[in-house]
Amino acid sequence: MSCPDISYAVQVLSKFVTKPYKMHYTALLRVVRYIKCTVNQSLLFPSSSSLDMVGYADADWAGCPDSKQSTTGWCMMLGSYMISWKCKKQSRTSKSSTEAEYRSMSAACSEIIWLRRLLSKLGIEMKGSTTLYGDNTSAIRIATNPVHHENTNHIDVDCHYIRELVQDRSISLKYISSKDQLADLFTKAMSRSRHNYLLSKLMFCDTQH
After folding, report:
1. Nearest to 86 by CA among 74, 96, 104, 101
2. Average pLDDT over residues 184-194
C-alpha cells in the first residue's frame, strides 16, 4: 500500500486472489524478489520543497485482456514529493482512449479537491488553481470547451464535473508529453529503464547509508 512502484503489479495480481494459478504465483514471486532487492528504497520528502500541489492523470485504454476495461492512474505531488497515488481498473468499458483518459482525469480531480480541503484544514492554503497534467489533447479540449458535444453524452457527468472545476479555477488542465507523464507508472507494465526513469522523477531513492 505504501509502495507506488509496485502499485500496477499489485492491482493486476489482486484480481486473482480468489482463484490463483501457477502463473500468478510466479508473478507474485517476481514482485517479492523486487521488493527484497529494493528494500532500502523509499520516497524522499525534502524539507526545502515548496507546498505547491500538481497532479498527473493517465489511463491505459482497454488494457485488460479479459474485460477490455481501462486502467486509471494518477499521482499528486506536493512540491517535489508524492503524497497520493492510485492505480485502479475502471468500472466501465471505455469506447475510446479519450474517454478512458477523461474518466481518469475526473477521478484525479476528485482527489485534488479532497486534498485541497485537507491541506486547508492543516493550515496550508492553496493559492490559485491546481495544475493537472494529462497527455491526451482531446480530453483536455473537451474539459476546457464549454460547448457540449454529442460524443460526450456517455461521460456527461464527468464532463460537467471537470468543466465546473476548470471554470471556477480550482483546476487548471495542461498537456504533458507521454514521456514525462509520471502517472504512466500506474497504468501499465513497462521496461526497466522506463520504470527507473519515472521513479527518479518521483523522488524515489535509496536511503541506505
Report:
1. 74
2. 91
Written as nine digits, the cell of 1 is 500500500
- Residue 172 in grid coordinates: 487548471
What are the pLDDT digits (tens) for 147-156?
655 555 556 6
Instruction: List the grid coordinates of 156.
Output: 456527461
Say whether pLDDT at 69 is over 50.
Answer: yes
DSSP codes of every residue in 62-108 = T--TTT---EEEEEEEETTEEEEEEEEE-SS--SSHHHHHHHHHHHH
For residue 64, give the CATH number of its domain: 3.30.420.10
CA distance 71 to 90: 6
d(C-alpha 107, C-alpha 84), whole Å: 12
Alpha-helical segments (H) within the chain: 7-13, 22-37, 97-121, 137-144, 156-167, 192-201
Domain that holds residue 62: 4-206
C-alpha torsion angle, residues 74, 110, 53, 70 (rounded to 10): 10
The total number of structural domains in the chain stands at 1
Q: Which residue has the higher pLDDT, 185 or 149?
A: 185
